[in-house]
Specification:
By secondary structure, this protein is an alpha+beta fold. It contains 18 helices and 12 strands. The chain has helices at 3-8, 10-31, 39-58, 65-89, 100-111, 114-139, 145-152, 158-210, 230-236, 240-243, 248-252, 257-269, 315-361, 366-393, 405-417, 443-459, 514-524, 557-565, and strands at residues 215-220, 225-228, 273-281, 287-298, 304-313, 401-404, 426-432, 438-441, 466-474, 480-486, 528-534, 538-545. The chain has a 5-stranded antiparallel β-sheet with strand order 2-1-5-4-3. Helix 2 packs antiparallel against helix 5 (100-111) and helix 6 packs across helix 7 (145-152). The radius of gyration is 49 Å and the shape is elongated.
Length: 566
């Protein structure tokens, strides 16, 4: 007997066992007045019967599989003993209580297999035959036991047919009940397996839908929301507990009326809508573009059960599209600008060279000398503007190598100390948490980024004393963070959104291309560029470099210098 089978039939088995016990108890106690012959078997039978419910209650906490296999069988055996006693006392072969054996056989079918049920039927048949023989033997004179056997096995005697019919009934009941219980057990196992498979499929389906990156919700025919996944919560800004079970018109009409109109149109027209884009407002009031597809949810008879809506947040996609459009525009502008700048630069170089020759050969005085100097200075400034513009407009290809930042920043500071923007009262300082800090990128472009940012910091002081700090730090993630800080006046809030715009500058002599070039080069090198500022305190530009790939080759001179210095 398997504990799993008992668990499946526990209710039936216990009900039949207790019913049989109550019936036998009534016969023994009230009908037979509790004869001494049955005192011990009935006491043991009662004790075992009371143990059965207790076993089924505690089996969920304790491993009692062996007891669940043995106690029911022992209880059935004692029940047979009690039934034999009842039959013997109440008339033997003419007793009206032989039918109690049938209840015992049916109980055995619930507790054992078909073979076990037939075994119990055999035991019952032997017990019944024995009690009949024993009763007939005691009823006659001494030496009548052999005549009792002859009577039992004599086909001409009524006792033979009585015993034969009872035994036939016992085996027939055993076979039918055992077979039916076996079929029921097989059906229960199949049903349990099917239920488990369905539960697993439901769990997997719910799990998949819950963790989709796309938002998904369904509504029924009346418009009530019946499913709302995690992505829908994040995109729409409604918790599942708040949205589920509510009418979509009550939920969506205020913040996202276009979405409510879309769903209402599908319900009224009973047709799904192709993918479209809508604008919604999230719980912070920010407008979000979403791409949504709606389709009908149908049952097996093709009747409408509701609507399924699948949607995605298109914010990042729109930003990427804007970047692609801007890159395409810049590519066209860059090609045209480079050609124009080249055509301007050639005659400008001739003019500038000629003016410098004239300035050296002619002896000019007064206004003429001032005008000649103005021509030379403005020619140089125009040449610088063209150089910066070409650097910004040209889509330079990046030659990625492993670059040692500490040495490179040292070279940049040497260059900037001779730049007119770096006054004598401006202090440049470098700190690093390691003597050698490597990044991955184009060395010339990284150098250009540092030059532009440090010059921009120096120009912020407007001839006043100040300090520019370059901090190089290895991050725990394996990347590198570089901060370029100044203690200047900071950036006013009104112009912070425009500092990277080309040709926008608040300085008298600025071209407005320095920070635009920095942003362009940082994008080329996949450097995360950001800044923090506070008026009156200063500004910090932050460059976050990714981790150096393991496949990067160490083949530049920075490695050699770093190795020598260490």
């Amino acid at each position: 007997m398997q504990s799993g089978d008992i668990s499946i039939k526990a209710g039936w088995f216990l009900s039949l066992r207790l019913t049989t016990y109550v019936l036998i108890s009534g016969i023994v106690i009230y009908w037979m007045r509790y004869p001494d012959l049955l005192s011990f078997p009935f006491f043991a039978y009662s004790l075992l019967t009371l143990m059965l419910p207790t076993l089924f209650l505690i089996k969920r906490w304790f491993d009692i599989r062996l007891l669940l296999k043995t106690i029911p069988i022992i209880q059935i055996i004692f029940e047979i003993i009690v039934e034999v006693g009842i039959i013997y006392i109440t008339g033997n072969i003419s007793s009206a209580f032989a039918g109690l054996f049938i209840l015992t056989i049916i109980s055995a079918a619930l507790a054992t297999s078909l073979a076990g049920t037939l075994t119990i039927a055999s035991l019952v048949s032997i017990s019944y035959s024995f009690v009949v023989w024993f009763g007939l033997a005691l009823a006659g004179e001494p030496g009548s036991s052999s005549r009792a056997l002859e009577t039992i096995f004599s086909s001409e005697d009524a006792a033979f047919y009585n015993i034969f019919l009872h035994i036939l009934t016992f085996f027939l009941v055993a076979f039918i009940s055992g077979y039916l219980v076996e079929r029921l057990k097989v059906r229960d196992r199949e049903l349990a397996d099917t239920s488990q498979a369905l539960r697993q499929a439901k769990l997997e389906t719910d799990d998949i839908l819950k963790h989709l990156n796309s938002g998904l919700f369904t509504i029924d025919r009346e418009g009530r929301i019946i499913f709302f996944n995690r992505a829908a919560e994040e995109i729409l800004g409604y918790p599942e507990a708040e949205a589920k079970g509510q009418d979509f018109r009550d939920i969506f009409s205020d913040r996202m009326p276009l979405l409510a109109e879309n769903l209402l149109k599908v319900l009224t027209t009973r047709k799904g809508l192709p993918r479209s884009e809508l604008q919604i407002a999230n719980d912070q009031g920010r407008t979000i573009p979403i791409g949504i597809s709606t389709s009908l949810l149908l049952d097996a008879q093709r009747r409408i059960r509701g609507v399924i809506a699948i949607f995605q947040d298109l914010s990042e996609t729109k930003k990427l599209e804007e970047k692609i459009r801007a890159a395409d525009k810049m590519a066209v502008v860059g090609e045209l600008s480079a050609a124009i700048a080249h055509e301007i630069r050639n005659p400008l170089a001739a003019i500038s060279g000629s003016v410098e020759v004239l300035q050296g050969e002619l002896s000019l005085e007064g206004e003429n000398e001032r005008l000649m100097g103005l021509i030379v200075r403005e020619s140089n400034r125009l040449n610088n503007i063209l150089s910066d513009f070409l650097l910004y407009a040209r889509g330079q290809r990046s030659a990625f190598t492993r670059v040692e930042l500490c040495h490179l920043v040292g070279e940049v500071i040497d260059v900037i100390k001779h730049d007119p923007s770096c006054e004598a009262n401006i202090r440049l300082a470098v700190t690093a948490n390691d003597s050698c800090v490597y990044v991955y990128g184009d060395e010339d472009q990284i150098k250009q980024i540092f030059i532009n940012l440090i010059i921009n910091a120096c120009e912020a002081f407007e001839n006043g004393p100040g300090e520019v700090m370059i901090e190089i730090e290895k991050a725990d993630s394996g990347g590198v963070v570089v901060g370029i800080s100044d203690n200047g006046p900071g950036i006013e809030e009104s112009i912070r959104s425009r500092i990277f715009d080309p040709f926008y500058s608040t300085k008298k002599s600025g071209t407005g291309l320095g920070l635009a070039i920095v942003q362009r080069l940082a994008g080329n090198l996949d450097i995360d560029l950001s800044f923090t500022t506070r008026p009156g305190t200063g500004t910090t530009f932050i460059l976050k470099f990714s981790q150096v790939p393991a496949s990067a080759q160490v083949e530049n001179r920075s490695d050699t210098v770093c190795a020598a210095s260490s």
